[in-house]
User: Fold these one by one.
Assistant:
Number 1:
Amino acid sequence: MLTPEQAKDRANDLVERARRAGADAADAIYAANASEGIQVRLGKLEDVERSESEHIALRLFVGRRSASIGSSDLSPQALDELAERAISMARLAPEDAYAGLAPEELLSHGPYPELDTCDTDAPSPQQLREIAEAGEDAARAVAGVTNSDGASASQGGGVFALATSHGFAGGHASTSHSISVSVVAGEGGAKQRDNAWRQAHHRADLPSAAEIGLLAGERAVARLNPGRVRSGPMPVVFDPRVSSTLVGHLLGAMSGNAIARRSSFLLDRLGEQILPPGTVIGEDPHRPRGLRSRPFDGEGLATRARNLVEDGRVTGWLLDTAAARQLGMEPTGHAARSGGGSPSVSVSNVHFAAGEVSPEELIADIADGIYVTELIGQGVNGVTGDYSRGASGLRIVDGKFAGPVAELTVAGNLLSMYANMRAANDLEWHRAINVPTLRVDGMTVAGD
């Protein structure tokens, strides 16, 4: 795997080859990843994985026509052929009035903040196995756990670089460590499965394997013998395991591409009160060790901390250059690149600001409600905001948990859900989108 500096040079080299082949403008990305993981099941080695990948992709423009192409062959001859093929493809493509590189005056040139996303602690395969075994052993020791789907421990690293024909070149690297445990509780037709996992750039930021295994076991046992609930309107509380999905739907509706296509339930609502007054949803791409920290975006623009929602109001759309041109706005540094092709929109280290009450206080006045720990299916309409998903979790009766429930559906409309949303104070910072426990009153629950 190349270093970030070498990767940047390789991307620059491909851009120069594209210019020599006849491109008016071009950008190139280099991405490489390496990982290894160990999986065990019932105390025995189940799988050993080792993977490495290296890819370079070119996007070029001939007038207002563009083409994208990629290759895992990085030899000089292959790169020349790549550039020539892309030129031929672009000349046959239709014109796009919004295509092009980011505005040159907005390019980022550093110096960049220290993101601390690389860890020198690299466990050996034997150590990875011991970590996985410790996680599974802790889960299987929980009373009621009867089987295992396995436990895994992995580590890896990656390098990303971007170069453009109008003056940007940058690269960065990161490492990753993860632990996952999945077990089964109960017997026969009453079996239930659950899991726990964590990921971090630094191994030291992970909980112990025993903690993760214990949590997986306790979660599986807590699902045993689920009941059914009556249908009707009631408060629904979303555990932090799933509450981030509600923010994810909001971010998707804020995408400039959705706004430009007029396919967002937030259309024409910029600046309106969407969430309760005082609500803040922030983004910090420069958070040290953040899972999605990055010094620049996929078009070479600066990333920066900002509030995406302030006092319950959306502060702006998430724009790459093409969507910004279509909407007559400036790009916001939210472009992302994955493999080849045009940029997409992505956010970095988002959090929903914590509320002032504990989760116990948040549910204390609920006479009859649902605490959701798992969501099933994808029943969300991004155009209308209509929301309907299968769910399971715990019943809430008189402010207390009253046993597991399953085979139910929670439904509503996202705009109404956001307007009636309250947050607990249990915000944690180990996910890409960090959200505390959320309560939404007035949802429709379909059960018996």
Note: The chain has two domains: 4-38+48-106, 226-448.
Number 2:
Amino acid sequence: MYIDRNTIGGHNLPFQDYFADNIWSKGQNEAGKLGLSALQMVTVAFRMLTYGITGDLIDEYIRIGEIAAIKSIKRFVKAIIHIFGSEYLRSPNTNNIVRLLAKSEQRGTLGMLGSIDCMH
């Protein structure tokens, strides 16, 4: 039995919820052109963080300059630190260390506290 779940609407709803009301982050610039959209700025941040690419490689796909790309990722990172910093970007306490060392012993990954790759 086929159930039509309106997948196109499912694609459009998040966009409308998060970007459509105020899609442009800034009004018009001095040249009368619209500023960057929130979608462009978030996409730039995700691509730079995910692929480890520099701001000058973003221009072709996202249509955003290097300086704007760097500003976007800095703004994104500041927001993440502001929201999650106190919980996730702190030094581990004694309970955390005991728990992490027990997990590393079970998995055979001794020394994981010194490895960034194993911190998750």
Note: The helical segments are 7-20, 38-51, 59-62, 66-88, 94-107.
Number 3:
Amino acid sequence: MRGVTWVVDRVLEAAEREYYDPEPVEREPAALERALIEGRIGQKTFDEHEDRLLDRLEEIAAHRRGDTAP
């Protein structure tokens, strides 16, 4: 049973590292801006996605600070 628990713990740790990795989120604004400039999305869509990205980056920063409150 301890082996299963250990494996589950490692999987959860890896998933958490990936979820809280800021690098992929930090790359998205440039792609989003390109989509806006190229006319593939409108300003409203851009603003909505940008707000979500900023919220996500704040969540990552809070996690790194050890904040548990949303």
Note: Helices lie at 2-19, 22-37, 43-65.
Number 4:
Amino acid sequence: MSMVFDCAVPEERADGLAAAASAVRAGQLVVIPTDTVYGIGCDAFAADSVVSLLAAKGRGPDMPVGVLVGSWSTLDGLVMTVPPQARTLVEAFWPGDLSIVLPHAPSLAWDLGRTGGTVMLRMPLHPVALELLRDVGPMAVSSANRTGRPAPNNAAGAREQLGEAVTVYLDGGPCGDPVPSTIVDLTGDEPVVLREGAVAVDKIVEALGTPVRVGR
């Protein structure tokens, strides 16, 4: 049976984080609050767990899963190189609502779906998520909804959609408006905004000091 922990209660928060960390290390799924929407996550390096995550959402590997990290420095170990534009965006918007796509380090033994050798990374601005990430390391995380349904901004909405597929639900309260992160692709010769979300395109342009392309 799934466990739900109210992270507004200090004792439950501590117990919930411990239970979530144990679940992640055991290859199970957890739901966590973030600064955008609630996410369903697992160990980023456990391929079977990522398969279970995709199955819980009702989607296949053609829609790969992004990775959440708990610190800036984690970025260096996950990607082939960190270009200056990536560091600029990290310094401007992390932790926060910006996801960055980069070529992942070829030595990493993970399978996040059909990524084409890239990984989408973000450091969320939420204390519960950050504490868990700093304990267990990078997590594969997607919005905590069934494919085709709205992404939930609270734990109850996530549980209603995902049910017993998830071992631990960390209830961090409502996230506010369920606005997804903005996604910037830095794998090519110029930055490309693949999705405009919580961070406006003009803010990206301002930070980089250069025009960006919008759309694939």
Note: DSSP finds seven helices and eleven strands in the chain.
